[in-house]
Design goal:
With 231 residues, this protein is mainly alpha-helical. 78% of the residues lie in helices and 0% in strands. The radius of gyration is 21 Å and the shape is globular.
């Protein structure tokens, strides 16, 4: 077979392979988003044992805080990646990006974050027999509280970015600048999740967080290259 024939064959196969990859990703995207966090949580949280034989005070709230934290970080990651790739060829592998879709998913993500924080504060409050309001304030006194503060900063920045999005018609330039900080929120969320969880030092959790960080970095690079070409 000649070299020219090989090149023609590759050109014919490329659209088919791209279409197959895109359709496969679209098909498994949302099942993965909903199943993966639950699977990771189930493997490292023996909730049935707690229900059958009891658990330390507040422990149930801790494990549910972890579950909603996993959902929150994965949804945040998807929001950032889908937005970064929306004007690239890779956007074909994702559901069509629209403002309505982005808003609804952003609201669901914010709800997951709030439930994650609420469950954690309730757990600590029950464990210490006092309302743990101090967890909502920055604290760098040790590794544990620093890891919490990293996530707290991400939450505060997310609130500002989402508030800016609600006012985008009045302040379009301000909205675009501030809302881009959501990429920083995703990084802070990933770092927070990796630092705070004891399970993230090994196994599936490490693969999970490293993969999300790597794909996010690649999406940022692709977006930067696209903007550079447009200029």
């Amino acid at each position: 077979m000649s070299e020219l024939t090989n090149k023609r064959l590759v050109k014919k196969l490329q659209p088919s392979l791209t279409l197959l990859f895109s359709s496969s990703v679209k098909k498994w995207l949302w099942p993965t988003v909903f199943i993966l966090p639950f699977a990771l949580w189930h493997f490292t949280s023996d909730v049935l044992t707690y229900v059958r034989y009891g658990a330390p005070v507040g422990q149930i709230w801790y494990v549910f805080s972890k579950l909603f934290g996993l959902y929150a970080v994965l949804l945040l990651w998807y929001l950032a990646v889908s937005t970064l790739l929306k004007n690239t060829t890779y956007a074909n592998a994702l559901p069509q990006w629209t403002f309505l879709h982005h808003r609804v998913l952003g609201s669901v993500t914010l709800l997951a974050v709030v439930i994650h924080i609420a469950c954690f504060v309730i757990a600590v409050s029950l464990r210490k027999q006092t309302i743990a309001w101090s967890l909502l304030l920055p604290d760098f006194k040790d590794f544990y509280h620093t890891a919490i503060t990293v996530g707290l900063f991400g939450f505060f920045i997310a609130l500002i970015a989402m508030a800016a999005a609600l006012m985008r018609r009045r302040f379009p330039m301000v909205w675009q600048t501030i809302h881009r900080a959501m990429v920083l929120v995703v990084f802070l969320g990933l770092v927070h999740g990796y630092l705070i969880g004891t399970e993230t030092r090994y196994g599936l959790y490490e693969i999970f967080y490293c993969a999300l960080i790597l794909i996010l970095l690649l999406a940022i690079v692709l977006r930067w290259r696209l903007q550079k070409e447009q200029r």
